[in-house]
Predict the 3D structure of the following.
Amino acid sequence: MCGIVGYIGQQEAAPLLLKGLQRLEYRGYDSAGIAVQSGVRCDGLGATGEVLGVRCDVLGEGMKDEAGVRVVKRKGNVASLGEALAGSNGAVSGATMGIGHMRWATHGDPSDRNAHPHVSADGSIALIHNGIIENHAALRVELGKHGYEFVSDTDSEVLVHLIDHLWKSIPFMNFEGAVREALSIVDGAYGICVISSREPDKLLVARNGSPLVIGVGEGEYFVASDAAPIVEHTRRVVYLSDGEMGVITRDGYTVKSIGNIVCEKGLTELDFDLEEIEKAGFEHFMLKEIFEQPEVMQDVMRGRVRLDEGRIQLGGISDQLERLREAKRIVICACGTSWHAGLIGEYLIEEFARIPVEVDYASEFRYRSPIVGPGDVMIVISQSGETADTLAALRMAKEKGAMVVGICNVVGSTIARETDCGMYTHAGPEIGVASTKAFTAQVIVLTMLALALGKDRALSDAEFIQALQCLSSLPERVKRILGCSEQIREIAEAYKDAKNFLYLGRGYNFPVALEGALKLKEISYIHAEGYPAAEMKHGPIALIDEEMPVVVIAPKDDTYQKVLSNIQEVKARGGRVIAIATEGDEEIRELADHVMYVPKGKAFMMPLLTVIPLQLLSYFIATLRGCDVDRPRNLAKSVTVE
Ligand code: F6R
């Protein structure tokens, strides 16, 4: 989810890299850095040591990078990096090749130390990395045995030391070979860019699960994680595929497989503008984020759902798992969409782990006299990690002696720092104000937590493995739903002028009804209410007429027949019904006015499927009404005030 840029050619690299990073900044990163191959001695380093503070830490005494790999990196935005560069006494000037990175923290807080590029101990190799190295902990231990010391908390730093180690320890090894060897040892996802003063004038790039594009100019080449930083220089690009590596010099480039077989790659001509590229061709960030969900789901589960080993590994809480299992009660606190994820968490934890759960609005929790204390566990859920009410509830619970576990998307955010332990959602930056991918990522984390708590307790081995299989199949199922977006757009067309909507669901899908209604109201400004389907007859049924569309979430589960009766009640009063149903359900077609289908699945995973058409329905209705879905009125992405 981080941003990568690289350059090799005749122009001054540092300003180009900086500009490239600015082009990626729209995604909202937390630190930035560049490394250039200067080809000059590092005389005068003392004078620049302050600005190059991180580099000095990394290189240590002696600054042996005589051929000149020079690094400047900073916590904060590109402007902070620009200031650092401006004050560096020209330490990076004159270089005509280099790499740059914008970090969205996954392992380790946003800080100068954890920012990329990472540098080998002798300062001769600099590397930037997008993705997650799953076996970084084991590799750290191995490299430690060979005397490697780590200066950051990142998984990425492992790669640069591994390359260095292989290069030095294998006879006749070269730069390319060392990178190739290292990539065959690491597990996980990566997009990397590496330079080395030991083989200057060569830029190596590789991809596995994290996008990389090479821009082809005249005697110069550009590299980036998306085409945004490239398009102003050249429109001719080569997209790397997974398992491919590019070797780029000023004279040309070769693409090979990691196994060293040359790949014939055609050039693609970019024919879209910068804004389109930033949104990956989607009209809005919200739509892009909805469509990103299959990949995000994979990222959330990466290294955690270990189907082959039949277990779930939640690094952030593994030391506390027993304490969590012994909790008298779990209280989940959050706001808005995160609160809806919390409600699903209640169903999951009670079903799988049989621990009593209560879900509270953080704003209510803090202003009543809640009974909470030692023996209780509070789970706080927050995309931003900065929501004022959630933070206050967390502090209150801690003060009263409860253990507090965080589920956050933003690494190093206040909530992430103040909780006793926690899990990151790894959904990447969410720019659309209406939360979509962060919500599904939260629900997956809660599902993994509930399963981990339930393993060897309420869940049999067979049930546990079956649940892992279901989770692993999720991204493919979500892709199928996204493939039906055109039908959903047509349904939106039929309802875009409605003034009110009712959303109904039962069991796991009741919180989804709430979330569907919230999504619609916040971006389309149509009044919408979510209800448990069975509650309809206790009041809301009075509202139903032909002016009031009712969205009914009705997958084939234990409550299906009852939900069908609810649909009949709506139809009997002249209401119009949009049903979310299981693929192959023809019966519901007879009753509902419109049907949006989702693939079959176990009841516990249905919210992760049924919410997708609801996100799309809201998006299409809002855009058909001309609303700015990325900047809905009166709303901010992060609510840091009460
Ligand atoms: C709705 C939405 C909000 C947030 C809420 C909590 O789409 O995004 O309801 O969910 O403001 O924010 P976080 O999760 O950052 O604590």
In short: The CA atoms of residues 577 and 600 lie 21 Å apart. DSSP finds 22 helices and 26 strands in the chain. The longest strand covers residues 31-37. Residues 335-338, 382-384, 387, 390, 434-435, 518, 522, 638-639 surround fructose -6-phosphate (CB under 6 Å).
